[in-house]
Amino acid sequence: MNDGSIAVEVGSVEIREGLWTKVKQMTTFTLGQLCDDSGKGLLDNVCVIQVDTLSMIQGGFTGGSTTSETSCEAVQKLRATLVVRLKPIKEKAGTLPWKSLIAQASMASVQLMEHAYWTPDPTFTSYLNYGAAISEVEVDVLTGATTILRSDLVYITVVEGAFVQGVGFLTNEEYATNSDGLVIHDGTWTYKVPTVDTIPKQFNVELINSTRDHKRVLSSKSEIFY
Asked: What positions does the domain Aldehyde oxidase/xanthine dehydrogenase second molybdopterin binding occupy (predicted)?
């Protein structure tokens, strides 16, 4: 935009994996080389727009643990094109705030809109991810009540929800049936789903760096589902 704001639309839908956050980060990472502060203040200028079939007729699908990787690689490709267009103005002006750079580019009739379509290489195949989790749990031996005091995990995006779901599955949720095979735990009076009290009091999540994989998008790791 002429005011320096950045609108991004990708052919995927946000389904709690942090897609929009990753797209914003990739946009900032790619365009940051044009900023005097390496893009530290650029993130606030980025807005991800909800996809629709009018402007994104070949948006692909959302799923298969590939959504973030494909969307971010497409963003990286199109932003790289914009960098090539804007670099001459940046080099000529020297130190120049982002908004001033875009204003000058607009006045010079530089095209500020770009699109990219990316499909994975045939070698873009499956790979293994390893995760680990350790939980510190307090058990009341008189009442049987349990409290998760602390949990240390090694993945950030979907793991919080998946972990709580797993806790519910292993501790509270019991799929009980009678002799005829009919479900008798058919409501929340008998089937106990996780609540806010199920979340660990101390929830530590960390992404462990690994060897760079040049076949991945910036060595990205796909989502892990438990």
From this structure: 2-200
Q: Which residues contact 136 (CB under 8 A, 6 or more apart)?
A: 148, 149, 150, 151
One-letter identity of residue 27: T
End-to-end CA distance of the chain: give it in Å, rounded.
41
CA distance 5 to 107: 16
What is the residue whose two structure tokens read 């479900």? 183
What is the 8-class DSSP label of residue 183? B
Token representation of residue 16: 């709690």
CATH number at 38 reads: 3.30.365.10
What is the number of other CB atoms lying within 10 angstroms of the CB of residue 122? 6
- Output the furthest CA–CA distance in the chain (Å, rounded): 81
How does pLDDT run across 46-69, given as a tens digit for each residue?
888 877 777 777 766 666 666 777
Is residue 54 domain-resident? yes
Q: Measured in whole angstroms, how far is the alpha carbon of residue 212 from the centre of its chain? A: 19
72-93 pLDDT, tens digit per residue, is 888 888 777 888 888 888 878 7
